[in-house]
Specification:
Mean pLDDT: 96
Structural class: mainly beta
CATH class: Mainly Beta
Number of domains: 1
Strand content: 35-45%
CATH topology: Beta-galactosidase, Chain A, domain 5
Shape: globular
Distance between the termini: 25 Å
Helix content: under 10%
Largest sheet: 10 strands, antiparallel
Low-confidence stretches: none
Number of strands: 21
């Protein structure tokens, strides 16, 4: 018996004629073929897009500068200031799309300045909301390069990002530190958008708050979530405690400014020989009719448990 797979169709999306919609009848996503690749939409079928879209950048291509656009993208960490050709490599050109075995394989041109070949492989569960996003970076340079695969999801504005700390313990039973909590020079922990509980870190996106905020952390069971209007987006992956991570040991980072909130996961730092590839797998899910009002550990446990047990 043939195994059921999600339906994939070519569509025009936001002015890009070569996009691909994947759906299993419950959720849908759209990946671009004219630029990127970017996953620009992830939502319940016909519902609100949980990903941010920069309206003035939709449907355009071929720009001479890097464009945020929104959606989900793949970068290489650690970050270097613009116009770094490694971090801010242009992704404004047509992407090779292959459909095979129910998956979308999206391969952009080799980044000429950085010498990197990126790729996204996207699969959707035949039922439910589960999505697998495999990120690949191959070193096409004739020399070795050290980097981390950095998966950034730009989320719609107006709600709260959530991440979890490793399992808590007690003193003096556990004396050794269990994880880093990384801050940037512009991070202000007195900002009212932050909230810390015993088990979670929360960051609210507020359009009227212009100053950016960012935090990084490490947890073996790395996840980032976003709660908006009783819908919950969760992305997760299993980090490796015995490996070295960028940005002082962060497997997860969360950023906000007046426009967006970003949920970011990072693979271990990897020294890639010529033609070698690093892979980084995220698991996504969407959940609806979720009630979070008090933002307590107990309430967050209840809301997140189904997603984290998938």
């Amino acid at each position: 018996m043939k195994k059921p797979v999600a339906k994939i169709e070519k569509i025009n999306y936001q002015g890009w004629p070569n996009c691909y919609r994947m759906t299993n009848g419950e959720v849908e996503l759209v990946i671009t073929g004219d630029i990127g690749p970017r996953i620009m939409r992830y939502a319940f079928v016909g519902g609100r897009n949980l990903f941010h879209e920069f309206a003035g950048q939709m449907g355009r291509s071929g720009e001479s500068t890097w464009q945020n656009r929104g959606g989900h993208r793949l970068w290489a960490a650690p970050e270097a200031a613009p116009p770094s050709p490694v971090t801010y490599a242009l992704d404004n050109f047509p992407v090779d799309i292959k459909l095979t075995g129910g998956a979308i394989i999206a391969t952009p041109p080799v980044e000429q300045e950085a010498g990197l070949q990126k790729q996204l492989v996207v699969k959707m569960a035949p039922a439910g909301s589960g999505v697998e996003v495999l990120h690949r970076i191959t070193n096409m340079n004739p020399w070795a390069i050290e980097l981390s695969a950095w998966a950034l999801t730009v989320i719609a504005s107006g709600a709260a990002g959530i991440t979890g700390l490793p399992p808590r313990g007690t003193h003096p039973e556990i004396l050794a530190p269990t994880n880093p909590l990384v801050i940037w020079a512009f991070t202000d922990l007195s900002d009212k958008r932050w909230q810390f509980t015993r088990k979670y870190v929360l960051l609210r996106q507020e359009p009227k708050s212009p100053s950016p905020q960012k935090i990084g952390s490490f947890s073996r069971e790395t996840f980032g979530a976003y709660y908006l209007g009783k819908e919950l987006f969760v992305k997760r992956y299993r980090a490796e405690p015995d490996k070295t991570y960028p940005d002082m040991g962060a497997s997860f980072e969360m950023f906000t400014n007046h426009e967006v909130l970003e949920l970011e996961t990072l693979s271990p730092l990897t020294k890639l020989a010529p033609q070698a590839t690093v892979e980084h797998l995220e698991l996504w899910s969407l959940h609806k009719n979720i009630g979070i009002t008090k933002w307590t550990d107990a309430e967050l446990d209840e809301a997140l448990r189904p997603a984290l047990l998938m």
